[in-house]
Please model this.
Amino acid sequence: MPLLELHGVTQRFGGLVAVGDLSFSVEAGSIVAMIGPNGAGKSTVFNLITGIYAPSAGRITFDGAAIAGRKTSDIAARGVARTFQNIRLFAFMSVIDNVLAGQHARLRATLLDDLLHTPRERAEEKTAHERALELLRFVGLERDAETTARNLAYGLQRRLEIARALASEPKLLLLDEPAAGLNPTEKRELVALIRRIRERGVTVFLIEHDMGLVMELSERITVLDHGEKIAEGTPAAVRADPRVIEAYLGAPA
Amino acid sequence: MKPQLRNVLLAFAAAIVLPFLVRNGAFTNFLADAGAFVLLALGLNIVVGFAGLLDLGYAAFFAIGSYAFAMLASPQFGIHLPFWLLLFLASGIAAVFGILLGAPTLRLRGDYLAIVTLGFGEIVPQTFLNLSQWTGGPNGISPLDQPVLFGYRFGLNALPYYLMILVLIAAAVWFANNLRASRLGRAWMAIREDELAAAHMGINTTKTKLAAFALGASFSGLAGCAYAAKLQLVSPDQFQFNVSVGLLSMLVLGGMGNIPGVIVGSLVISFLDRFLLPQSASWLHVDLSASRFLIYGVILVLMMLFRPEGLLPSRQRKAELHAADDDADAAAAEQELYAEAPH
Amino acid sequence: METFLQQLVNGLSLGGIYALIALGYTMVYGIIELINFAHGDVYTLGTFFSLMILGLLGVTGVVTGPALIGVVLVTIVGAMLLCGIVGVLIERLAYRRLRNAPRLAPLITAIGMSFILENLMQYWHGPSPIPFPDVVPNPTFTTGLVAIQMKQILVIVLAVVMMIGLQAFVYNTRLGKAMRATAQDRDAAQLMGIDINTTIALTFLIGSALAGAAGFVSGVYYGSTWFFNGFAAGLKAFTAAVLGGIGNLAGAMLGGFLIGLIEALTTQFISDQWSNVVVFSVLVLVLIFRPSGLLGESLPTKV
Model:
């Protein structure tokens, strides 16, 4: 059974159909991508999956459960994490606090534990700190643990966002244009990082415009144009698909 | 022991000894009142400082805590619950109202939230005033039961109240400090920074914000009991808008979100309000007590213009409030760079 | 039924005053997203300035004959001018620096300004209410079901005239267009060559001037004034602005009249004591259930 499934998902904003009758699935343990020209509705799909919007029609299933229209915090607790197209870090919190905040869903301290600083809370905080440092090492940020997030270089901010997303121990990681603004070296590091993430058992679903990166990483690609799926398949198949070429470059003269 | 802990213990020791050194009844009374307002400021700090919810009507919770005590420990209804039970009960009742009055504000943006809380800040005392059969109307409820500890009745001397309030402050500081560095404290910070991203961390923004309102309000339940018992009176004019603004001024002056800052800000304003201004007539030959609001207004405006993070800021708040300046500086620096570069 | 209709008339006059004040709130919020807390106090200043001008003109009671028009004109224009200047000064001194600061900062500053103004007015005329001359002769006209006083007609007519003038200005002049553009997108407006500082100052000038006019009218209508008037009136006018749709001029006018009606009806049919609670409850309910107000539009946020 696939980890994530969309059936006939449609999203309307007033008269505009941002996503139309979209169906696809993501297998657990894979790295898949969604591409398409700007405005194709890709981010909207992510927003539907993480519960920012409830679809106008259709079903979304994650890990066997229906999640369409549920609260974002609920979906996140079930194991869906994401990064954002325009980085949305907690800018004025430290790097490590960002990652600790990311662990929110996995920490079990109750209000009373927090209020009274119980031994259970103390132990859990210690473990949480250790986990946070481990995640920072995983993305290469361990030396910047106490830096204020907004003071990090752009490339490092993107890495922090990924570390924060991984902090919730997700089953599915949605990456929204993770390579935007990165130089070639950073992009190579990103590819390696995504592979390491998959080795940890996390399914990766990314939106990207960098074709080289997409072709190199993904096992399956879904192509969107004007909110509709126009192609789906392996990188080789998608690359040769005339409809995809037309969507990006326009019809032949 | 850690230097922080040592400083805190020294401060408390000094606070305990102070009334015995000064030996002035009016001064001890002032200390007790100031202490009650430190408690209130610490409570407001949870809502505004930690969770970033601008509450302009916190006096409403002070009213609820005080009236809860007055109705359950006085001849008003003939109910005479013990004071120590009422400390818990009143904070519990205040916490419940924190949730009730906070719930409608959950989806509101910062300034609208502020106005709604201000609305509640007006509605609550006015309601207490209007329901005169139960609340005593404009005259309020008086007298109130005095606390009794192991057979010792607190009486009308301010000293035992002051010492009790110190204990309450110690507890409040401990609770607030625990919360700040906990999972809940980080959730509050995250919501303050970016509510949408916070939701993606699995943070239930509804419960988290309500927790801030409830916990913040509960402190006013404690303060309400202590203050009302000492004053032996609860009446609606104790809970006007200027009380809410005064508390906010304490946070603004001292440093929002920073516990020592809040305490210092609270003490400075209390000293100004209840000691310096009333005495100004005899020292400066000018009666400044009619200028009370002018002085507060000027403090608020000057602080916001020149030092919005307060006298003792938390590092994070300072960065947040000067971010716009930093961005402007960075943009200006960049412009200079381009201007100098060869074309 | 008669009482109801009578309260309708009373409500309209109350509402006229609130509408004039609400316009200032809504204009300022529309352009810089600030709830100008001090605005209610500028309204009270309008009454105080009117009192001063009337004193200079030697008016202590009713003015009869053609001199009446002159007196009213001079006083209103004077009050509007002085209040407009005060509004511009406040913006320049207190709010301009904080234009890009987190919302908390200008809001707290506005509260501070409100306190300062209130205290200054307390120095000026003391802590107790002070009488305001009648100025206008006040015959009552009865039309079978309702009675309406001359003063009420004055309030309503003045309010409507000001509103029409404002609409004309905002929609038919270059400066008005600049105001609308700045309200919609400040950066784009700047790129189009609009001087933001002047436009914002102008908004404060006009908004405060309207509050000044409301101040004059209020003095005549109530026959007295008080340094602390502005607090409750300001909150109610803000409620009106929100009810109608913040940032929307027609909304402020509609909201003002509605709030006036609600207050009049509550005072008549429940009690005077509860009218404030009812109006503030309206504020809370509107902000919770329909924050865009009656005439406003809800804008979705883009992620």
Summary: Residues 28 and 203 of chain C are 7 Å apart (CA to CA). The first helix of chain C runs from residue 2 to 32. The longest strand of chain C covers residues 140-143.
